[in-house]
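Morning!

As promised:
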Amino acid sequence: MKELVTLDRQHPDFMKYLWGTFSDDSRALPLKSLNIRTAQETVTFRIVPLKELSKPSWPVIWLKALRPRAFLQILIPMFLVLCLSDSQGLLVHPDLPWLATLGMLFLFASLLFANDVQDHLSGVDRILPDRGSRAIQNGWLTASTLQGVSTLCLVIAALFAVPLFFAVPFTLMMFLPAVLIGSWAFYRRSESFKDVWIGSFALFLLAGPLLVVGYQTALTEGFDLQGIALGCLWGWLVLFPMHMRSLSQLVAEGRTGSSRTLVGRLGFDRSVRLIQLWWIVGLFGFVGYHYLDQAPFWFWLFLFLLVAFSTRFVKALRALKSPAGSAVEAVRKQGEFYFHALILLWVLEALWRMGS
Amino acid sequence: MRHALTSSVELRKLASTGSIDKDTLLASSGSDLKIYDSHDFPAYLPKLNSLYDDLFAGGKGFRAKLIRMINSHLGLPGKTEQLLSQTVEFIHNASLLHDDLIDRSVLRRGKPAAWTKYTPEYAVLAGDYLLARVMVNLSGHGNIHLVQRTAEAISELLEGEWLQDSVVGDFFVTLEQLDRIHNLKTASLFKWCLRAPFIALENHDKALHESLEEMGTILGQLFQRGDDLLDYDVRNDEGKAILGDLKSGYLNSFGAFVTRGKSRAEIDRLVKSRDLAEFKATLGGEQAFETAVKAFDAANEELIRLYKHHLERLPSMLAESQRGLVKDLEPLTDLLYWRRKPQ
């Protein structure tokens, strides 16, 4: 083990160690803690000289820090809106889609990085091992670097947004509520917005209706009922893996005292029922949306198979005995698989529609 | 019962004059600590005192000795030391009464478990009664911080018990998941032992308590991991039943360590081993087993280094007269993980 240093929040260098600015040639890697009382107030760092640090190549580091899978949360609905707008022949200008898409991608990257930094500074990532990209915890990047890149991404996102707002001023109407909710979510001092029950609703709005309707407005200078329905459905579905993750982290989150997520408030048994209900309602919404959208025959065939197979997931979910063992993680992965299968089916249907 | 009435401070004085061996506190048998007295409990409750006589007869009283060892540097009055020792042993023994019933273990310290000898109902009630007496005794002492910390320790212990029971039969549980359970179940009382004497002394220094909390967590985990190795007959001088945990449907920390990265089929074969020889053969032979033990030891050496790091920070938080405690706390990792007696 390398040199160990323990500092409390009152220590003048505490924040320098957390930000990673205490030294040019060493990294301070915070040790994982099982102790809620100390993790947030006192941190033990392992000081590792940079030359002794095992790091993947820079592209891999940044790829991991970016968490490409997380981008599905915005790429999929934007793609669906693009397909919808194209099929309706409503795209007003060829430059608007790429301006809006790049702006959103940079904004999302900025939020992801800022979120990792926030979790690192608050100590949550020392208790919940699955939180974030672990790029800071592994010493690949410092919190300071990540914060800088987050700000840079935000500036670039703004550069893309400005011409868009000039071209389609109405987009601002959609953007402002998102900024308000986003600001509330990311600048909460006491705890992450993900750790309060209303955070689920904020995420539903941000990742669902506001994103979809805002993007649709940027592309078509307006929005319609189908856009709102798509946004609501997506917002609902995207919360499903989040609830599953909260369930698998229920013990750890409960011990941090941050179990004020919807799942944390409901507790294990009722959360199992909530997630089951969430999946079933999501499926009904999915069927309803595509019924109104007159999806093709093959789509219904695959959807039927998916629903039939997903009963295995529901059964496994209902059979869960504990949030502490291995089963909850296995069920989470199973749930994510069906979620991704559902999304893949939606994307294929959209592609098929574009092709035909 | 001379030592039962002699506080650790007096013992420490005897040690300094050479009248008593310096390691008496930790190495002494449990019999010199008067934890249980039948006169403290109502005589009109049938079988209660017989049950407690059996329960308290065989224990090593390690936690009480730890309290005594710590207090030998703090100088709490003998009565307070007795209260703390009694408190931790009452909680520990209450948890054993409940644990044996939950696990359906028929033996405790080589004798019939209380629930088999006195009925499950009496075993549950006797455990509850011990916990109630803890609160009666502590609240009578009047230190509200001590009452609160003790109530927290009991809560953590019960949460750990609850979660552990919920993973019985789960052979795919990870070491990290088990650590969380052990941190609640096993480490809660170690943390309490380290902190309670300072709370009784009205020393509420935050930095000190955070360090002690971390050290208690590490000691608890090391104790649990050392204990779990006994199940695989590693350093098993106590003669603990081999593969007892596994046969009871519980994959302990060493089991979780050796099954890391293995497929479900491989884990299935391992946990179905009828004896240790078969377990080792399934793992890849004696050599593979030894390698796994060494790797497990190496992982725990890291924990021991972390413990020593916290120990090094301790003197700056202690009064001059209390600093001898650091030297006494140092060999605990040897005792708890390596199961070596103090030199």
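The beta strands of chain B are 107-108, 111-112.

Hope this helps with the figure draft.
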